[in-house]
Amino acid sequence: MVYLIKKFIFFFLVFFYCNLLFAESFSSFQDFQRYIDNIILASIPTEAGEKIEITILQLNEQNILPYCKSDFDVSLAHPGLSSPTNTVLLSCKGENPSILYVPVQIKLMTDMISAARRIMPGEVITEKDIVIKKFDKYQVYDEYFQDISKVNGLVAARLIPPGSIILKKSIAKSLFIKKNQPVTLIFKEGPIEVSMSGVAQMDGYLNDTIKIVNPSSKKIVDGTIIGPGKVEIH
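Structure tokens predicted for Flagella basal body P-ring formation protein FlgA (234 residues):
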């Protein structure tokens, strides 16, 4: 359904701008650039957190297609966003047919998790160490993260420079609690916080829910790992 709506919008914009060309020429090179941008933006769907940036290549004010009195056709050499480079074809039919090839560079700027500081190998990554920034999806060839919660608590497997994308191959899970390890159980109720001892019944990573036994009562409870050797029970 979304695809059909975008397709309708694309053809509507093409029709609208083509009719504009029948009536008058572009008033400026900037108008021509905006026209090209609208054609591409209307034909390429994006997802949440994505933004398309378009740069016209090898074109100047002397290369703009002249005024067209008859039908004016617009098309993309490569429909969709299958390549970081594309070509917009503008063709004028009639007594003096002409065609203009407009090469464009397309960047698909996408939200990705990046390092807010230098992260050394073996360091546990926290929310303070990461930030969401936009990068060109076409220039990223490995799996990346978009959700901060998916990175929080992981360990850097290699040096991650500040400002660089945190790739899945650059991190590893950190085992926060091992089976049979003594742990601190924390219970919170409003301003009240109670701590007690327990023994983990399984391995666990940050934010995992594991089972802990109370050595005194032998009662088994579930808790969420909130740090090394620390489990919060509800």
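Residues 120 and 201 are 31 Å apart (CA to CA).
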